[in-house]
Amino acid sequence: MVRSTAILRQAVHALSRTPHPTLALSPAVRSALNPKTRAPVVALESTIITHGLPYPYNLEVAQELEQTVIDHGAVPATIALLDGKPLVGLDEPQLERLARCAIDPSKNTAIKASRRDIAHVLSKGHGSVGGTTVSGTMVLAHMAGVPIFATGGIGGVHRGAESTMDISADLTELGRTPVAVFCSGPKSILDIPRTLEVLETFGVSVTTFNPTGEFPAFYTSNSGLSVPYAGTDAQAAAAIFANAQLGLQSGHVFANPIPSEWNEVGQRIQQSVEQAVRESVQQGIDKKGKEVTPWLLKRLAELIPESKKSNRALVVNNAKKAAQVAVELNRIENEVQQAAGTYALGGIPQTVS
C-alpha cells in the first residue's frame, strides 16, 4: 500500500487526535499524547476492578496490568469515572479507591458504565464511581486519542438472546468507534458463534494471534471457529494504521489466546461455566441485563477458584500483546512523520508520481 506522505500523515492525525477538553489526563498520559513527547499508550478498563474481581485481588491485578504495559514499552491509561470527571490514567490512590468498591459486593455503589451510562454517572458529581466497561472505555479512549485498548474478554450475544435480546453494547461500539481491542475473545458465558456473526454484520475486523487461525474461547485457546490470522505485531499495527488511513470509523478485535499452560484448567472451567449458566436461567438472573455477567463470574469463582487465576493470566497476556503492538504502531507513525516524499507500509519506500 503506497500513498503520498501527506495522505499518510492524515492517518497519523486521525490516530493522534487532540484529547477532548473534558477529559482529566494523568501526567504520564498527557505527556505520551503530546505531539512533542509522544509515546505509545494502552487503554485499560476499570470494570474488572470495580466488579470483575474481589478485593484485594482486583488491586493486585490492576497494578500488574499497568506494570506489564510499562515493561513492554508503553504508557498505561486506566480509564474510570470519579467524582464527576472522566479520567484517563489513574494514580495509586485512585486505583485503590476503585478496588475498595468490591470489598462487599452487596454494598458496591460503583456503577458499571457503558456508553449509555457515562453522562448519568458524571452528573452525580462528588462521591460517584463508574467502572468503565469495554464500550465505555472505548468511547473515552477514542476521545483521548488512544487507539489501542487491552481487556480480558469483550461482551457479546448472550445465550438465549433470540428471546431476551440481550446483546452487549460492546458489539455496537466496535462497529462505530475506531479503537483496537486486544482480548481473549468474548467471555465464555456467551454465545460465541452468534457474537462473531454480529461483529461481521457491524463490519468489525476480527483477527487472532493464534497461528492456527482458531478463534479463542476466553479460558481456552480453542473455540472451533476460524478467523484470519493477525500475523506479527508489526502487521497488526499496520492493520490499525490502514484502518485510520481509510477512515473506516470501526474498531478491531485482536483475539489473543490464553497462554497454553492454562488450556487444561480452561477445559474444567468451561464445564463450570455451563453449570453457572444453567443456574442463572433457573434463578431468573439471565433476565437482569448488566447484572448477569458479574453474577456469572462470581458464581464461577465459587465453583472453580482457578478461574480467577486464569482470568488474571489472560488479561495480563493481552496487556503485554497490546503494548507490543502499540510500540509498533508508534514506530509507523514516527516513520511517516519523518518520511520525505512517499511512504509504503511495511517500511519499503517507493516513488510515485
TrEMBL record:
<dbReference type="GO" id="GO:0005737">
    <property type="term" value="C:cytoplasm"/>
</dbReference>
<dbReference type="GO" id="GO:0046872">
    <property type="term" value="F:metal ion binding"/>
</dbReference>
<dbReference type="GO" id="GO:0004730">
    <property type="term" value="F:pseudouridylate synthase activity"/>
</dbReference>
<dbReference type="InterPro" id="IPR007342">
    <property type="entry name" value="PsuG"/>
</dbReference>
<keyword id="KW-0464">Manganese</keyword>
<keyword id="KW-0456">Lyase</keyword>
<dbReference type="Pfam" id="PF04227">
    <property type="entry name" value="Indigoidine_A"/>
</dbReference>
<keyword id="KW-0378">Hydrolase</keyword>
<protein>
    <submittedName>
        <fullName>Related to Pseudouridine-5'-phosphate glycosidase</fullName>
    </submittedName>
</protein>
<dbReference type="InterPro" id="IPR022830">
    <property type="entry name" value="Indigdn_synthA-like"/>
</dbReference>
<keyword id="KW-0326">Glycosidase</keyword>
<keyword id="KW-0479">Metal-binding</keyword>
<dbReference type="GO" id="GO:0016798">
    <property type="term" value="F:hydrolase activity, acting on glycosyl bonds"/>
</dbReference>
